[in-house]
Structures are given as C-alpha cells and as structure tokens.
C-alpha cells in the first residue's frame, strides 16, 4: 500500500463512544432493577446491550479510516492494538478477580457454572482473549470483557481483508454493506426460526443457553457488524456521500433507534441483540463523521475526554456501581435520581483516572514510536 500521512482526527466519533458506553451502563442499571423499569426510557435502557454493536461497527469504520493507504507492517498493527486494549483489560481483570471467584463458588452465578467446573481453562481463555469462542464461558471473570475477545478476532481479520476491500468499487462496497447487514439478520433470524435451545421465549435474562450465546457472543456471528463498519469507512474515505446528507443520516438513524425502542417488545430479542441496528449505527457513524455543524458540541474537550475514557467505563462500571446500591444481604438501597447521577459520575471519574494513569502511560510504553510523523492522530477502538 502507498504510504499516507495521518488523517485529521475525528473527535466527534470519540465522543460517540462515550454515549455508547453510557447506554451499556443504563442497561445494567435497568437489569439490576436500580432504575428505568418502565416507560420509553425503560425501553431505551433495555436496548443498552446494542451499544456493543455500535462499538463493533465503529471499530471497523475507524480502523479503515486510520490504516487504509498507510504502509503499516502487521506486527506494528498488532502491537498497537495490544497496547490499546490490554492494559485497561488487565487492570479490569485484576479488580474483578475476587468477584469472579465469589460468583463461581459462593453465589454460584448460573452463567459461571461452566467456569466453576473448569476454572483454569476459563481463566486462561480470558487472559488470552479467547472466552467469546466458548458459549458457556463467554461471560467469565469480567462479564463485559467478552466483547474484547470479539475485538481481538476482528484485529486478526482486519489486515487480511483490508487490501481486498480497498480493491472494491463504490457500488460493490454499497452492496457488501447491505450483504453484511442481511447476514447479521440471518444469523439471529435463523436462531429464531430453528430454536436450537428449545426455549419458548428468550430475553436479556437468558444467559446460559449455548446456541443463544453463540448468536450473542461468538466472534464469527458478530463479524458482519465489523465488516459493515469497514464498508462505511471505505465509503467515507472515497467521499461517497455529500456532507449535505450528514443531518438526514444522523436524524434518520436516531429516529430509527427510537422506533426500535418503542416497538422492542414486539421484536425478537436475538434479532434486537445481534444485527438489527448495525446498519442504523453505520448510518449514524457516517453522518456524524461528515461533521454536521449543529453537532460541534460533540467536539468539546470534555466530551472527547469522556469518549477517551469510555473503554475503561465500559470495563469497570459493573465493579464501581454496585456498592452504591447494594448491601451485603443483596438489599437494594439509594435508588433516587441524585444518587444514581452521583454513582454514574463517580464511575466516569474512575474511568478517566484509569485512562490517564494506566491506559495512556502503558500504551506509550508498549508501543513506542520512533518516527513522530507516523503517530496516528486518532486512536482506533
């Protein structure tokens, strides 16, 4: 590939990462019955798990934006990816290790049954970022870390397919984008049609059904979302859509998300979880990347900082938040709105601290760059 200089930053997409992570936080606040139990906000919070789908699409988009046309050896790419994700990942595992042990052997959490029977294999798979390949062990240790296992697979695939994508024309990329969206829907729709787990109904509380977990967590099942994001990145680099479409794309995507939230009780959970919104998220990301002027508030330094810290917020919020709301006997307390705001603010503050004092320093140490001209101006997710 021909070498190109680093492209301009897209800080607006960094801010979007924060809102996706916050959506996941809202989902867990609802799942633990702390708040958002009814109404439209309840429906929106219930869809918080789709924030991970946005991460996957955004990852494909940004990796293409960052690396396409740059002469980056694979070993440099993988070193950069390791330095980007593993320090905060390892820190989260250190913090959650006691809860993992307690969950397996004291509280006997249902989705940790397999891990309790195979603790060494389960722990090693998490350390190696392989847990998502095991449908019964995907939620081991730090449950949300399954998505990092999926991302690790995406990083393996990316250098292998980038050149192939680069040789496709615009019309082919548009068709591929549609194909990947349909493929995602086929995976989740196929589950609903075949019902391999034999379940009459499924929702977000079903965590120990092997085939449902394949649809939700398996890297191959989630790969179309990443590839869809890659298509969006390719189209963006080729100026395939005029900036005048920025606002229609963003507002149309947001309207679609609200519509899905409103009608979510009638939409099968596997389809909601895997596939349905990936195309919508692609449009949302593309629209914001085009830079609508009214969205300049997303480029503010504070929101970009929140976006930088969103990775740690995602990894650590389930460790930071529970002490605010639960006592030793499991009793739920302090569910007032001011207390919830305080708890989330503390979680964000902790995430910023981890970003500033763990993520950034270790990333620089693990991925030293000799040529400052090669420094990427946007750190992909």
**Class by helix and strand content?**
mainly alpha
Runs with pLDDT <50, length 5+?
370-381
The major sheet is characterized as: none
Shape: globular
Write down the secondary-structure element order: HHHHHHHHHHHHHHHHH
- In percent, how much strand structure appears in the residues? under 5%
Helix content estimate: 55-70%
Count of helical stretches: 17
What is the radius of gyration computed over CA atoms, rounded to a whole number of angstroms?
Answer: 20 Å
Q: What's the mean pLDDT score?
A: 91
Say how many strands there are: 0
N-C termini distance: 22 Å
Oligomeric state, counting identical vs distinct chains: single chain
Describe this protein's structure.
There is one protein chain. The chain contains 17 helices and no strands. The longest helix is centred in the first third of the chain and has 32 residues, at 74-105. By secondary structure, the chain is mostly helical. It has helices at 11-31, 39-46, 51-67, 74-105, 113-117, 119-127, 146-166, 170-194, 210-217, 219-237, 246-263, 269-273, 278-289, 301-308, 310-320, 322-325, 337-366. The chain has a domain at 11-70 and 174-374.
Question: How do the helices and strands line up, and which of them pair or pack?
Answer:
Elements lengths: L10 H21 L7 H8 L4 H17 L6 H32 L7 H5 L1 H9 L18 H21 L3 H25 L15 H8 L1 H19 L8 H18 L5 H5 L4 H12 L11 H8 L1 H11 L1 H4 L11 H30 L15
Give keywords.
single chain; 381 residues; mainly alpha; 66% helix; disordered C terminus
């Amino acid at each position: 590939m021909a070498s190109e200089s680093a492209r301009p930053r897209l800080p607006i997409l960094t801010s979007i990462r924060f809102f996706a992570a916050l959506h996941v936080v809202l989902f867990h606040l609802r799942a633990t019955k702390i708040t958002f139990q009814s109404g439209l906000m309840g429906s929106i919070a219930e869809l918080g798990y789709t924030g991970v789908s946005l991460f996957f699409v955004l990852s494909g988009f940004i990796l293409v934006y960052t690396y396409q046309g740059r002469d980056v050896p694979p070993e440099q790419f993988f070193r950069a990816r390791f330095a980007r994700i593993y320090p905060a990942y390892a820190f989260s595992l250190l913090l959650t290790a006691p809860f993992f042990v307690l969950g397996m052997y004291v509280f006997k959490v249902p989705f940790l049954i397999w891990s309790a029977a195979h603790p060494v294999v389960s722990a090693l798979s998490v350390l190696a970022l392989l847990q998502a390949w095991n449908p019964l062990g995907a939620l081991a240790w730090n449950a949300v870390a399954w998505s990092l296992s999926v991302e690790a697979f995406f990083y393996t695939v990316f250098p292998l397919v980038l050149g192939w994508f680069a040789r496709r024309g615009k019309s082919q990329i548009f068709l591929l984008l549609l194909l990947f969206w349909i493929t995602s829907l086929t995976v989740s729709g196929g589950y609903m049609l075949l019902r391999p787990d034999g379940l009459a109904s499924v929702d977000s509380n079903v965590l120990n059904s092997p085939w449902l977990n394949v649809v939700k967590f398996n890297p191959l099942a989630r790969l179309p979302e990443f590839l869809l994001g890659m298509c969006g990145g390719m189209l963006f680099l080729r100026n395939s859509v005029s900036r005048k479409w920025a606002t229609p794309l963003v507002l149309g995507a947001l309207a679609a998300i609200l519509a899905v939230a409103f009608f979510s009780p009638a939409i099968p959970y596997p389809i909601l979880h895997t596939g349905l919104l990936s195309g919508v998220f692609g449009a949302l990301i593309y629209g914001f990347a085009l830079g609508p002027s009214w969205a300049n508030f997303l480029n503010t330094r504070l929101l970009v900082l929140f976006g930088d810290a969103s990775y740690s917020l995602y990894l650590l919020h389930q460790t930071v938040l529970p002490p605010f709301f639960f006592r030793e006997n499991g009793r739920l307390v302090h569910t007032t709105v001011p207390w919830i705001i305080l708890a989330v603010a503390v979680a964000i503050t902790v995430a910023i601290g981890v970003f500033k004092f763990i993520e950034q320093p270790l990333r620089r140490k693990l991925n030293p760059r000799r040529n400052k001209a090669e420094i990427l101006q946007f750190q992909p997710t």
